[in-house]
Write a structure and sequence with these properties.
With 255 residues, the protein is of the alpha/beta class. Helix content is 36%, strand content 25%.
């Protein structure tokens, strides 16, 4: 029997005369990375806000970990963590102090031990006592995600987690997401980057025109298109590959 972490049926939401969600349906299995793809303004963040109880729906049903987002909002909040589009870290505090603060707010014991574990797990041990304002974009995002995992939430929402990051920072966040997905945490990821969904997701849904127009694994979605033809071509490196190669070479020379 499939264990469902998130269940959405006929979800609807309007803002004045603009109907953003027109009957959205999908399920997320427990322990998987589920990517919701869509262009800017498609309604991805609206869905996240409804599922995390920050916004009321107009119609339909939605539940997280078996709890209705409307009638059992408190239970939903106890089961989830949310990381928005921009890192919500306190720049005045150090990395360790940020995590300790969240641990205290969530009633987690052994604050210092939890902070050390999280900092080590996300490769921030050496920067633990630096102010978060001194962190790079990728480091701040990793700290933000580490803070989200304090207390071991059953479901974590990542709303466009790599927005505004450079290529190196984006790869850092990808590695982080892959690492903690192995712990059994259910991850609901929104993105407008096709490559991001391809790299991370177990299952992908495409939101367009207020509805889910496709939903499945990458292999299942590929079957919606005509069979690929075999051609022999010379593949040119992408600008991102060139950038990373040059930066990597510079780092090696500097050592």
């Amino acid at each position: 029997m499939v264990d469902i972490a998130i269940q959405v049926s006929d979800l609807r939401k309007s803002f004045k005369d603009n109907q953003v969600l027109k009957g959205v349906d999908f399920e997320v299995e427990r322990g998987e990375i589920f990517a919701l793809l869509g262009s800017n303004g498609a309604g991805k963040t609206t869905i996240v806000n409804i599922l995390s109880t920050l916004m009321d729906k107009d119609g339909g049903t939605a539940s997280v970990c078996g709890f209705d987002v409307g009638r059992q909002a408190g239970k939903v909040r106890e089961s989830i963590s949310l990381t928005g589009q921009f890192a919500a870290v306190d720049g005045v505090l150090t990395g360790r102090e940020n995590i300790v603060l969240i641990a205290k707010l969530r009633g987690v014991k052994n604050h210092a031990e939890v902070a050390d574990q999280m900092l080590g797990r996300f490769g921030l041990g050496e920067a633990a006592n630096k102010r978060a304002s001194a962190y790079s974009g990728g480091m701040a995002r990793r700290l933000d995600i580490a803070m989200s995992l304090v207390g071991n939430p059953a479901v974590i929402f990542l709303d466009e987690p790599t927005t505004g990051l450079d290529p190196e920072g984006r790869l850092e966040v990808w590695k982080t997401i892959k690492a903690f997905s192995e712990t059994g945490t259910t991850i609901f990821l929104t993105t407008q980057y096709l490559e991001e969904a391809e790299q991370l997701a177990d299952r992908i849904a495409i939101l367009h025109g207020g509805k889910i127009i496709a939903n499945g694994t990458l292999d299942e979605l590929k079957k919606l298109f005509p069979p690929a033809t075999e051609e022999y071509i010379i593949k040119q490196p992408t600008l991102e590959e060139i950038f990373l190669a040059i930066v990597g070479a510079e780092k090696e020379q500097a050592r």
